[in-house]
Specification:
single chain, 261 residues, alpha/beta, Rossmann fold, 7-stranded parallel β-sheet, two-stranded parallel sheet
Length: 261
């Protein structure tokens, strides 16, 4: 039987804003101490202060997840400073707009290095510690784009999120008997700063306004509204917590009904 998450330690990457911030705050509300890891150091510090105001320990670390030395420092500093490590949420990600035949190798590498490669090797570092203690949970942030080509203007993003789902299944299958659970969450259209960027980029290539782009996208959501970061954070909280103890290798949709498989 898995224990309560109270006083356990979680790392959340890309947590200076948006979904990552909501996840970090929700895990703190659940009783966890949280490492806020983000390349935006000032934003990470602000979120860490919010967590401390909730009465939990928090550590803000400036981390570029594409750099092996930064990833190593993230895990080493967590253990040295907070004394334990129980959960990882791989949330850091980027998007770029381009039609499939306009993708360059630089575009491919930039997106895949953050969204797929960094996730894989953060999982690797986390698993080495979790396997030694025979416990731990990893939640990888995928996307509805990993299950369906969300738009033709996001070809590499779509590929990267499909890769996240595949690695989640592989790690989960390999280590299911070792006390470690690995799951993914697939958000749809969520109100975040990244979503604002996507709307503006789509507007620039279509001649429409960002508001028109937003309304068209929300119009495809069966529930009729854009999601909130807390909608995603609630599902992550469940997957980190003991109520999901018989779940691993799953990719849970948080899409307002846009994806049903």
């Amino acid at each position: 039987m898995e224990q309560s998450v109270k006083d356990q330690v979680a790392i959340v990457t890309g947590s200076a804003q948006g979904i990552g911030r909501a996840i970090a705050l929700r895990l703190a509300q659940d009783g966890m101490d949280v490492v806020v890891a983000d390349y935006r150091e000032e934003g990470a510090k602000r979120v860490a202060e919010e967590i401390q105001a909730l009465g939990r320990r928090s550590l803000a670390l400036a981390v570029d997840v594409t750099r092996a030395e930064d990833r190593q420092r993230l895990f080493e500093t967590t253990l040295t400073t907070l004394g334990r490590f129980d959960a990882l949420v791989n949330n850091a990600a980027i998007q770029r707009v381009a039609m499939p035949l306009d993708v360059t190798e630089e575009h491919w590498d930039a997106v895949m290095n953050v969204n797929a490669k960094a996730v894989y090797f953060c999982c690797e570092l986390a698993l080495r510690h979790m396997l030694s203690q025979h416990s731990g949970r990893i939640v990888n942030m995928a996307s509805l784009a990993g299950k369906a080509a969300s738009t033709p203007q996001h070809p590499v993003y779509n590929v990267s999120k499909a890769a996240v789902i595949a690695m989640t299944k592989t790690f989960a299958l390999t280590y299911a008997a070792e006390g470690v659970r690995v799951n993914a969450v697939c958000p749809g259209i969520i109100e975040t700063p990244m979503q604002d960027v996507v709307d503006r980029e789509f507007a620039s290539v279509t001649g429409k306004t960002p508001l028109q782009i937003r309304n068209e996208r929300v119009g495809r959501v069966p529930m009729g509204r854009i999601g909130e970061a807390d909608d995603v954070a609630s599902v992550v909280s469940f997957l980190i917590g003991p109520d999901s103890r018989y779940m691993t290798g799953q990719s849970i949709n948080v899409t307002g009904g846009m994806i049903t498989y």
